[in-house]
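Hello Y.,

Per our agreement to keep a running log of every chain we model this quarter, I'm adding this entry. I've kept the format consistent with earlier entries: sequence first, then predicted structure.
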Amino acid sequence: MNGNLDVTGTKPNKTRKTVLSLVFGGLVGFLGATGVIALVEAGSFGTPDASQVIALLVALIYLLTGLMAALGVAAPRMGAKFLNVEDEDELLEQKQVLAASGWGMVALGLMLALIALGGPGGVLDSHVALVGAVLLGAIGTWLSMRSVKLADELMRATMNEAAATAYYFVFVVIGGWAMVSYLGYVPVPSMLDLLTLFWALVLVSAFWAAGRRGMLKQR
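Predicted structure for the entry above:
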């Protein structure tokens, strides 16, 4: 009797958390994308072309994802309500890993944004963009390596699988685009398009690997 009550009692909590996470994530993403588009239309980013706008939107995904993880760890009671963890204690246990991973994503997101804004039509001087991008790339790489060292066996295996998956995605998507472009079937991609694809495919690979291991199921 008590077991039945416990089971039925946990389902609404999981459903509520799932709905809350989806609504919160969707709202933050929508507002962020709307803000970027509004700033582009207002001329705050200069006169970026379509490739630059797409790069900025991908950078925004990195920024928002990283900030949600990092801030969720900084405020574990609140973070446990929208991050996919069992409870506040799990966030405290994974604090160093998630903080390093989260801030690493923020650094890499800012790196892509600087590159996009430092190109033709952007508001940043190319030298400033280059120095900033190299510095942020170094910080993001260091934080990512730190998160790997601090991760447990399951998370480390997932990271390795994500890296391998990213290689195949890059080979197929970017390599395939280069092939058909060289043969004259589609327009030649810009260098920024290729960079944006690198960022996007790494992110897709991470979610793919996590999903394969059941880590995206609501907890």
